[in-house]
Amino acid sequence: MRILLTVFGLVGCLFSVVSATALTYKLQPNEKACFFSYAEQKGLKLAFYFAVQSGGSFDVDYSVVGPNEKIILEGTKERQGDYVFTAKEQGEYRFCFNNEMSTFAEKMVDFEIAVWLALHLNDHRSLISAIWARASCWL
Description:
Elements: H1 2-15, E1 18-27, E2 32-39, E3 45-54, E4 60-65, E5 71-78, E6 80-86, E7 91-98, E8 107-116, H2 124-134
Antiparallel strand pairs: 1-8, 2-7, 3-6, 3-8, 4-5, 4-7
């Protein structure tokens, strides 16, 4: 029984190697709003989800810009999006919504930004390192 609890504890600690933020934002007419997330190292997975809940035609322009101002994703007049990409560089990633095309309609946008370390089970050294690093969650 203790071994089973230990295994579940290890798995729980591994799954806690995720940092996420879920928000709802009221985007005013003619407004561009950006939110930021920092990738501590290259190779991390970044996930970006959004859905326009109300306002105008339920659409918004968006962009994701990485370190060195490199455009990773962009779209116009989208109602929702769900994307996952790998950080090619360490640094700050910018997630923007743009309602500059609207002169009177505000938009209510739900969105989530998540950053996590993707572990490959055949890379035992990474798995052991992650377990060791997260062992502090039991203290």
